[in-house]
């Protein structure tokens, strides 16, 4: 292979090899590596004119040591970035929180995982936070006890502290007020605070907030907690022995997934949880009798909470025992068959709308694992259907939250009313 020298501008590149078995385009690529001038911009003077990409070397008469002239403008040299790529996991903890959109965590004050999980779960509900912000520091109503007022104020202040900080927060004030209101959370064993039930903390705190916010004039909704978390149940109570039958209505804050050797799936556990046996006095028999209670969902909240009932009482040992059975759950939970006939009729219209391809459900909910304690689930529903954004913006404005001004259009009244009551499909992401 002959070697030539190539002069480009003020530079001279000696001993450049030419592979005459390859097309001249390959030679131009070699010069591109040396000069940074792309092959399409290169003008190389040879015998007979300019060197073409597909020319035949044998006809060009290139000799050993020949000096070739090249013209052309080089590409701008790519400069190395001043700062290299930074991965999220390499950022300081404070910056990771901001980048990922997470809020501050909570320090464990000694077996307080049950309390921390409950707080973080409720803190993720924007409607509850917006209501607590308006709760007055003083001036409680006469029908509210002082301890309930102080616990509500402590919850509000802790939420504000979590929003202001990126580093973990020590919920000491809230814990002190919680133990004063509910002394069972202050039980000691060998000088240390005992582990407690997260579901019990969840229920007690929701009950307190419900009482406080209901009596407060700061809330437009007379019962904010019930509107967000309350599940309306209608039950048929039947005694097979006497034939007596009655109906009952009640409101609860969580559905229970009862676990037994027959339960392998969340849906099966929910069905078991809606059926129970009661022993009470029978007017017709004049004595106690067994009644069967079969409940159905008659109203769904914005956030549906589900408890895995993993503890039961062992009579032989007179202590609690934990059920370690594995229970599967789907990526999408549909509780339509658990609803009452009246609620099913109200949900028929939005269900038909949301079965269209443009109205697929969006993964938008949270699943909270509470260590070795019973599981608590915080759910919310969200649609990709265009009308859903209109509905959320309308509700957001009422709550004083930031909303988009670009939403337009109107929503069918029947669909809007049913969506406000709660579509019966939820999906979640594990966090």
From TrEMBL:
Its EC number is 3.4.19.12. InterPro entries: Papain-like_cys_pep_sf, Peptidase_C19_UCH, Ubiquitin-like_dom, Ubiquitin-like_domsf, Ubiquitin_CS, UBP14-like, USP, USP_CS. It catalyses: Thiol-dependent hydrolysis of ester, thioester, amide, peptide and isopeptide bonds formed by the C-terminal Gly of ubiquitin (a 76-residue protein attached to proteins as an intracellular targeting signal). Gene3D superfamilies: Cysteine proteinases, Phosphatidylinositol 3-kinase Catalytic Subunit, Chain A, domain 1. GO terms for molecular function: cysteine-type deubiquitinase activity; proteasome binding. Residues 2-71 form the Ubiquitin-like domain. Coiled coil: none annotated. It is an enzyme of class 3 (hydrolase). Keywords: Hydrolase, Protease, Thiol protease, Ubl conjugation pathway. It holds the Pfam family ubiquitin. Residues 104-431 form the USP domain. GO terms for biological process: proteasome-mediated ubiquitin-dependent protein catabolic process; protein deubiquitination; regulation of proteasomal protein catabolic process. CDD domains: Ubl_USP14_like. It comes from the Eukaryota. Belongs to the peptidase C19 family. This is ubiquitinyl hydrolase 1.
